[in-house]
Design goal:
Strand content of chain C: under 5%
Helix content of chain C: over 70%
Order of helices and strands of chain C: HHHHHHEHHHEHHHH
Structural class of chain C: mainly alpha
Chains: A alpha/beta (235), B alpha/beta (446), C mainly alpha (313), D mainly alpha (288)
Mean pLDDT of chain C: 88
Structural class of chain B: alpha/beta
Radius of gyration of chain C: 19 Å
Number of strands of chain B: 15
Strand order of the largest sheet of chain B: 7-6-8-9-10-14-15
Radius of gyration of chain B: 21 Å
Oligomer: heterotetramer
Distance between the termini of chain C: 21 Å
Largest interface: B-D, 39 and 46 residues
Number of helices of chain C: 13
Number of helices of chain B: 17
Strand order of the largest sheet of chain C: 1-2
């Protein structure tokens, strides 16, 4: 009996030519909180996110979101079903204002309430920048906007692809604080390289290598897992 | 000054007579009674009265004429040919003291850049008094309807669609439009009149896929069928135009039939390309006779030069004017002038535009004013002695009636700024036999 | 919400609206004709910019809808209902349907594909207009388009002028509302970052179709107005060079701006009128102009104006 | 029944095919590697014709030498365009690169008119090519056979060039993922330039060969580019073999239809396009 299994991935395979990015990935995320996916470069973390969010079509396997099969759906459909994401390299309507970015995201599914946009801007402390084009903002703020946009689509699951990549320490703290707040409202899956962050805020950690999940568990379990240490932490 | 005018006048008359002789030689006897009189009477009298009663000077001392031609794109060369005719006439007339003392000025425009805009600007901004030229039939059909609004006379010198005279002038009664060049009649109907006597029964057509090609082929078929009931039309091919660089597939498609004769209205670069490729494919080993109504327009004649194929029953070519016909002084003088000025034999649209300017001169000199209605009246029924021969401006639809010969490529060439094929067996059928005429514009047969 | 950029645009638009309003007072037919061309061409270019400037779709076949509209009006008023107004609306409708058909075939493809396909579809109509002579009059086209009808009569040049003017203003206004609306924002987001759009939960295809339909139908109306102005329609309306004209105008004016196409049209009309006079090399002129814009200021003239405007404040 | 007509019609179709192919091949490699649709590719062809004319009458008087020089020149012009006009645009939206090549085609159109005048130009076929093989009352001109073979030759040599040479290896690396190519130390900028040279060269070759059989006049490029676009679209952008097949499909079917249903001419190519869009939107060899 599965009590709110958020997402379940079964035997997911994705090849690029001869290179196997995902080699039969299985995982299941149950309950709220932050799940972090870690692993060396080329382990297939980002590919996994891309396949889940419909950016890439899997060669085999299926993806169940809250019990519903979303394998190979178009990205915008998946967003409407309730999964939104951010990108390693910040991806926004950079020529448009902060307000417009959030507004666009809030507009899907036809219905639109002004207050939602305002609330998000407030809770992300972005009101003062609302009418600035995004490209004029510093990197950290752009990252906030990106997350704000993701939230504006009213997701039931949030996927963050290296949310702190390329941020300076202060900016990192800013983002981490934010993620902690969000965790209370919505389950989060996050790909992250910064181990301190991972082991501080994660409820569960999933370790990938060579396109496979090689371990998963609480931060402590993972930290103490010999196998993981060898192939990943390299200790 | 005066004496000079006298001399040139005498020449004119002489030429007029010569023109007539040719006309009669051409077989005026066949023409309907009424028509036959016109050249006999009016030519001479008109020319004389013109100088006997000296007219008052015009209100303005320059007469501005707007010249429209295609000056960009694939057919850009045609705009130049029109310009050459206009310039030559202007230079001659101005050198000879202008029109009743007023000098001619030209403004030359690219009709391909929105002909209506160009015409409006010429008339409404540059205040030109007349418009001449226009290469494309489509543009003629665009320009024609706004002439009453512009309140000017336009003389078309190339656009050949029969709809200009039959619809715009005759049916819609737009009196401001005249055409001094021949309509498609010459290209389709006249060809049939000559084709009927050839030992060729099975005909095929490769024609440019637009109104000119369609209509000409249609005229050719209907006429020939009527004149020669046993004629057969075994294949119809249509090539896009402009823009066809490769005729091979149409040529070979016709070679797959048992056609002995070919009718093609391809012209300009496409005529050249067509004949070259036909030769390469051995097409003319099979085809015994060809009619190419625009095949002797100068760009094609020069373009093919010595290579112009000579066929068993004739490579029959023509133009809306051919430089050697009629053999009158007027024509000789014109041809010499052209060769001197432009280094090449005159193309048909050069002659038609040249004559159009002289037509304006004649009209103004006749009425002595620039009053539009008077000028229109003067031009209607006017008989002009032009390089292309005696032209009668048919009053009902303002279409110039004159005859154009067809001739066979002889294989000989002469060199005038390039090799030009010489024609033999030149056939001139009186215009009245192949012009469609109001009111019904029936196909003129027998 | 407040304008993205409080720019001189609005003043410019207002100026255009007023000056075109008073032109006929001067009784200069040539300038009335140029002004009519300008208004029609502006409508055409504005419709084009919904694709190019908003949705980031480079079309070489917009003449399809322009010519489609022009021929619809000609055929409709001559054969069905003899009225310019109904004819104009019919033209808009037919172009809308055309846009639907072509859109479904072309809009699922990448943008480059789209550009090439639109060129081909535009030329398809061109070929049809030449071939289907019994209906379209072939290369001579259709002349004698009626200006007097059961509802309105625009036989008089001035009346015709203000008929065009009315549509110019109406379309100007409605497109400005679209520009400011949330839907307009969504369409512009296509051009802003198409790859990202799906992850905000919007379908690229649906928005593209929407843009295409709006753009196509308005281009159709522009075509109809052109047919009424000229009284004649010919196949060259559908030739691909006709599609290139609003493109150039838009680029000159500034694709990112609402007023871009309008300013562009003004410059374009002036330029072609002038360039055609100095010589028969206006393709060359346009080409050089394009290169200058692409390398210099892709935002067009308005981008420069906008920069200066920002500096001043 | 006598099969000669059909056979001959196919023969002619193959000739048309290689004209299309001589434009489409350039379009394809340039797009494949640079992701640029070169709108001026057909104008390159016309330019090749004009240059061959100039070299023939102005300098060499030799058919083959003129063709070689003309092809090289067009190749170099291609390089110049790529270097000065396109390089600055690689960072920005693809549509602007397409626009740039469009502007170039406008300019070359009028330039040819200014430089070579408005009259069509052509050069005579050399005696060696003037002759034709006569079979069953049909002449198979050596020239046309040559053109068909050259089309094939170009296909083969480009394929070898790309699949068997070091340069080709780099090109293939750049073909799909320039960023990766850069990361493994390939100088993509040189690859781009060389590819543009190749594209120009092929077009120039086509044009200069063509001018001996089909005179060139200003503006002819406009008509060819549309067909070439349709070919590449049917092929699936960037698919060399696809483009070759598509050229043959279009060329031959156009030719055959002329024999049996001449009326669909002019429309046929668009019908084929619409059809292939419905059946194989991704192109003959394109994968979704």
């Amino acid at each position: 009996m599965e009590v709110k299994e958020v997402i379940r991935v079964e035997n997911l395979v994705k090849k690029f030519g001869s290179f196997v990015a995902l080699n039969g990935v299985n995982l299941s995320i149950v309950g709220d909180g932050i799940t972090s996916i870690i692993g060396p470069n080329g382990a297939g973390k980002t590919t996994l996110i891309n396949v889940i969010t419909g950016r890439l079509k899997p060669d085999r396997g299926r993806i169940l979101f809250m019990g519903r099969d979303i394998t190979g759906l178009q990205p915008h459909k998946i967003v409407r079903i309730g999964i939104s994401r951010t990108f390693q390299v910040i991806n926004l309507f950079s020529g448009m204002t902060v307000y417009q970015n959030v507004l666009i995201a809030s507009l899907n599914r036809g219905k639109y309430n002004k207050s939602l946009v305002e609330d998000i801007l407030k809770s992300f402390r972005l009101e003062s920048y609302r009418d600035l084009e995004v490209y004029r903002l510093p990197h950290g703020l752009q990252r906030l906007v990106e997350i704000a946009v993701a939230i504006a689509t009213k997701p039931k699951l949030l996927l963050l692809d290296e949310p702190t990549a390329g941020l300076n320490p202060n900016e990192k703290d800013l983002v981490v604080e934010l993620i902690k707040d969000l965790e209370k409202q919505i389950p989060i899956v996050m790909v992250e390289h910064d181990m301190d962050i991972v082991f501080n805020i994660s409820r569960e950690v999933i370790v990938m290598n060579k396109g496979e999940v090689i371990a998963s568990g609480t931060p402590d379990e993972i930290a103490s897992n010999k196998y993981v240490k060898e192939i990943y932490l390299g200790v | 000054m005066v004496s000079e005018e006298r001399r040139s006048l005498l020449k004119m008359i002489g030429a007029g007579v010569a023109g007539l002789v040719v006309g009669i030689a051409g077989g005026l006897a066949l023409a309907p009674e009424k028509v036959r009189e016109i050249p006999k009477t009016t030519t001479i009298t008109q020319t004389i009265t013109k100088t006997e009663t000296p007219v008052a000077k015009l209100p303005k001392d320059t007469i501005r004429i707007g010249v429209l031609g295609i000056r960009s794109g694939t057919w850009a060369t045609y705009g130049t040919l029109i310009e050459q005719g206009a310039r030559l006439a202007m230079e001659e007339i101005n050198a000879a003291g202008g029109i009743l003392g007023s000098k001619i000025e030209l403004s030359i425009r690219d009709e391909a850049a929105d002909v209506v805009k160009q015409a409006r600007e010429l008339v409404e901004q540059e205040k030109v008094d007349f418009l001449v030229g226009v290469d494309s039939s489509g543009n003629a059909m665009k320009l024609g309807p706004i002439m009453p609004e512009l309140n000017r006379i336009v003389i078309f010198t190339h656009a050949a669609t029969h709809r200009v005279n039959e619809e715009l002038v005759y049916k819609q009664g737009i009196k401001h439009i005249f055409r001094i060049s021949v309509p498609v009649y010459q290209d389709g109907i006249l060809a049939a009149w000559i084709a009927k006597d050839l030992p060729v029964r099975k005909w095929a057509g490769i024609n440019p896929d637009y109104e000119y090609g369609r209509v000409s082929w249609d005229f050719f078929k209907t006429t020939l069928k009527a004149l020669r009931p046993d004629a057969e039309f075994v294949s119809e091919q249509w090539n896009p135009s402009p823009g066809t660089t490769d005729f091979t597939k149409w040529i070979s498609a016709i070679m797959a039939t048992d056609a002995e004769g070919l009718f093609t209205t391809n012209w300009a670069v496409e005529a050249i390309t067509f004949h070259r490729q036909a030769m390469e494919l051995g097409f003319y080993k099979k085809i015994k006779a060809v009619f190419n109504p625009m095949g002797y327009s100068m760009d094609v004649a020069y373009g093919l030069g010595k290579d112009y194929p000579k066929l068993e029953h004739g490579m029959w070519v023509s133009g809306r004017y051919v430089w050697f016909y009629p053999p009158t002084d007027v024509n000789k003088r014109f041809v010499d002038a052209c060769v001197k000025r432009w280094g090449r034999l005159p193309a048909y649209s050069t002659e038609t535009t040249y004559s159009a300017i002289y037509m304006i001169k004649a009209a103004i000199e006749k009425v002595g004013t620039l009053d539009l209605d008077a000028l229109i009246k003067a031009m209607e029924n006017m008989v002009l002695i032009t390089p292309a021969g005696v032209r009668w401006i048919r009053p009902q639809d303002h279409q110039a009636v004159y005859e154009i010969p067809y001739g066979k490529i002889s294989g000989e060439t002469i060199n005038v700024g390039g090799d030009v094929p010489v024609l033999t067996d030149v056939r001139a059928v009186p215009a009245f036999l192949y012009y469609r005429s109001p009111p019904d514009y029936k196909m003129p047969i027998g | 919400m407040k304008m993205p950029r409080p720019s001189p645009e609005l003043y410019g638009i207002f100026l255009a609206a007023v000056s075109t309003l008073i032109i006929p007072v001067f009784r200069e037919p040539f300038y009335m004709y140029l002004a009519s061309l300008f208004m029609i061409f502006s409508i055409f270019s504005m419709s084009y910019n919904i694709l190019f400037g908003y949705a980031g779709l480079l079309s070489f076949g917009h003449a399809l809808f322009y010519a489609g509209g022009a021929y619809t009006l000609a055929l409709f008023t001559l054969n069905l209902i003899r009225d310019p107004l109904i004819g104009t609306l019919a033209a808009g409708l037919v172009s809308l349907i055309l846009a639907m058909l072509v859109g479904v075939l072309t809009l699922r493809h990448s943008r480059i594909y789209f550009s090439m396909l639109t060129l081909a579809f535009g030329m398809l109509l061109y070929a049809l207009l030449l071939k289907w002579r019994s209906v379209t009059g072939g290369s001579d086209g259709i002349s004698g388009i009626p200006r007097g009808g059961i509802i309105i009569n625009i036989v008089d040049p001035i009346a015709r002028y203000y008929y065009i003017y009315t549509f110019f203003i109406a379309i100007l206004a409605s497109l400005y509302i679209l520009h400011r609306s949330k839907y307009g924002l969504l369409i512009r987001s296509l051009g802003a970052n198409e790859e990202f759009l799906p992850f905000t939960g919007h379908s690229i295809f649906k928005l593209r179709i929407a843009a295409f339909l709006i753009s196509g139908s308005i281009a159709g109306i522009a075509g109809a107005l052109y047919a009424l102005l000229m009284g004649v329609v010919t196949p060259d309306l559908a030739y691909w060079t006709t599609s290139a004209e609003p493109l150039v105008a838009t680029l000159v004016g500034g694709p990112r701006f609402f007023a871009g196409p309008i300013l562009g049209s003004l410059i374009f009309i002036a330029l072609t009128t002038y360039a055609a006079r100095i010589a028969d090399i206006w393709q060359l002129v346009l080409g050089l102009l394009l290169i200058a814009l692409i390398l210099g200021s892709r935002g067009g003239v308005l981008e420069l104006v906008d920069r200066i405007w920002r500096l001043r404040r | 029944m006598d099969l000669t007509p059909i056979f001959y019609q196919i023969f002619i179709g193959l000739y048309r095919a290689s004209i299309y192919w001589l434009i489409a091949s350039g379009l394809t490699i340039i797009f494949g590697v640079l992701r640029v649709v070169n709108f001026s590719q057909a104008v390159f062809l016309i330019l090749g014709g004009y240059l061959a004319y100039t070299f023939y009458y102005g300098f060499t008087g030799s058919f083959w030498l003129s063709i070689l020089l003309a092809s090289l020149c067009v190749g170099i012009i291609g390089v110049a365009i790529e270097f000065f006009l396109l390089k600055p645009l690689y960072k920005i939206d693809v549509t602007y690169q397409l626009l740039m090549t469009f502007a170039v085609s406008l300019i070359i159109n009028d330039a040819t008119k200014i430089l070579w005048g408005k009259l069509p130009v052509s050069i005579p076929l050399p005696e060696t090519l003037g002759i034709g093989v006569s079979i069953l009352g049909r002449t198979y001109p050596l020239y046309i056979i040559l053109m068909i073979l050259i089309g094939l030759l170009i296909y083969v040599s480009i394929t070898i060039l790309i699949n068997r040479t070091m340069w080709g290896l780099r090109v293939r690396a750049t073909w799909r993922r320039p960023e990766i190519a850069e990361s493994i130390g390939i100088n993509t900028s040189i690859i781009y330039t060389s590819v543009f040279f190749l594209g120009g060269f092929v077009a120039g070759l086509g044009g200069s060969l063509m001018v001996a059989f089909s005179p060139v006049a200003p503006g002819l490029g406009d008509f060819l580019i549309v067909s070439a676009f349709i070919v590449t679209v049917i092929a699936g952008l960037g698919h060399l073999t696809g483009a070759y097949i598509a050229s043959i499909i279009i060329g031959v079917s156009e030719s055959l239809f002329t024999l049996y249903v001449p009326e669909v001419d002019l429309l046929l190519i668009y019908l084929i396009m619409a059809l292939s869009l419905l059946i194989r939107p991704q192109g003959i060899l394109g994968e979704r």
